[in-house]
Design brief:
This protein has 398 residues and is mainly alpha-helical. It is built from 16 helices and no strands. It has two domains: 184 residues, MFS general substrate transporter like domains (Growth Hormone, Chain: A), CATH 1.20.1250; 186 residues, MFS general substrate transporter like domains (Growth Hormone, Chain: A, Up-down Bundle), CATH 1.20.1250.20. 80% of the residues lie in helices and 0% in strands.
Length: 398
């Protein structure tokens, strides 16, 4: 695999392990920890929200470090930190310690997940970052598919504490060598293509981004899109249960979501030369509120439920890639790590708070229709933000 594709494949494997072992595994530990330690579900999920907030706060610093050529150090330290903290989690006995662990885990999330690896790939492959990011997310998108059942089997077989040690070992044995060895070879870089400098008057790219309308349009779009995704991820099963959907139908519809994400990314990869970030993003953002509307207005239709899952999954698969390529395509490549890192702050806040907000809306309204109406509203705001950011006039004089 010439042309740096071996590294892309290795980084994709690292993403699969990092997402699966640190992020997606969390929900599987809630019940056994609740049973053994007596902590409430709200208290446990509060630690996750705190960690996501730290990840967002650290995003700018991590991205700026990568911009200066520190990708190898950042991602290697992130994997070491993840392993140490997962091992520490396996011995946790107090709620205060658990929160401190998750505040620190937020740093490892900021240093190992999509945002830092997108910055690394964009820096190393300025000519072909879009295609490489798309391929990377095809593998990384299977993290929940691989690690949720794997983690559940381990918890049932050996208990939740030893399972955390296994996950810690995965980060040391798989992710750390990839980041230490793979990111240490400067020979895989592409020659930076010639491109006229933007008229910044010597101003730092990040400070210039804060005054640019595209940045704020992207922040609005990605934040509200993440709020919908996070809320429905944690509330879809209760929602369908409330509607009396049979369990086999419910599980089958949810199972369609993952393959739909992959299908959306494959289509985007096939059309990469013709489908820009602007076009792909516009289509996907429109699909989001449309999918939720299907779920709201056709509550008793099994066909509508599967249509929602397919459309919602495909849109999310495409938007994961758009998040990685929107900044260099709609703004500029200079300072990509810092700019994209800054965008993760409101995104992670939304990811952490949206499930709680949806629960509050459900409690006040007494049913999930109000939650779906709120999701449609968020989808409209997200769509408007991205359409504004991707409109040719907004990027003028970039």
């Amino acid at each position: 695999m010439r042309g740096g594709w071996t590294l892309v494949g290795a980084l994709a494997l690292g993403q699969l392990v990092s997402w699966g072992s640190i992020y997606y595994s969390f929900s599987l530990f809630v019940v056994p920890m609740e049973r053994e330690l007596g902590w409430s579900r709200t208290e446990l999920n509060g630690a996750l929200s705190a960690g996501l907030l730290v990840a967002g706060l650290a995003g700018y610093s991590v991205g700026a470090w990568i911009d200066r050529g520190g990708g190898r150090i950042v991602m290697s330290l992130g994997s070491v930190l993840a392993a140490a903290l997962l091992a520490g989690w396996s011995r946790v006995a107090s709620l205060e310690t658990f929160y401190l662990l998750w505040l620190a885990i937020g740093l490892s999330l900021a240093a190992t997940l999509y945002e830092p690896v997108f910055a690394v790939i964009t820096r190393l492959y300025p000519r072909s970052y879009g295609t490489r990011i798309t391929v990377l997310t095809l593998v990384g998108g299977l993290a929940s598919t691989v690690f949720i059942p794997l983690t559940q089997v381990l918890i049932e077989a050996i208990g939740w504490r030893p399972t955390l040690l296994v996950l810690a070992l995965c980060n040391l044995a798989i992710c750390l060598p990839i980041h230490v060895l793979g990111l240490g070879d400067p020979a895989i870089r592409e020659e930076i293509p010639s491109r006229p400098a933007a008229s910044s008057g010597g101003e730092a790219p990040f400070r210039r981004a804060l005054r640019h309308p595209v940045f704020w349009g992207l922040a609005l779009g990605f934040t509200f899109y993440t709020a919908i995704l996070s809320a429905l991820t944690f509330h879809l099963i209760p929602l369908l249960t409330e509607r009396g959907v049979p369990t086999p139908t419910m599980l089958a519809a949810i199972a369609v979501f993952g393959p739909s994400q992959v299908a959306g990314r494959i289509v985007l990869l096939a059309l990469r030369r013709h489908a820009t970030a602007a076009f792909a993003g516009r289509c996907a953002f429109v699909a989001y509120p449309t999918a939720v509307a299907i779920l709201l207005f056709l509550p008793s239709s099994t066909v509508a439920l599967f249509a929602f899952s397919i459309l919602f999954g495909a849109a999310n698969g495409v938007l994961t890639i758009v998040r990685g390529i929107a900044v260099p395509e709609l703004m500029w490549r200079e300072g990509y790590g810092a700019i994209n890192g800054a965008l993760t702050l409101p995104v992670n806040i939304a990811r952490g708070l949206a499930p709680y907000g949806a629960a509050v809306i459900w409690s006040a309204a007494g049913n999930y229709d109000a939650v779906l109406w709120s999701a449609i509203g968020c989808g409209i705001v997200a769509t408007a933000g991205f359409w504004y950011a991707s409109w040719p006039g907004a990027a003028k004089n970039r």
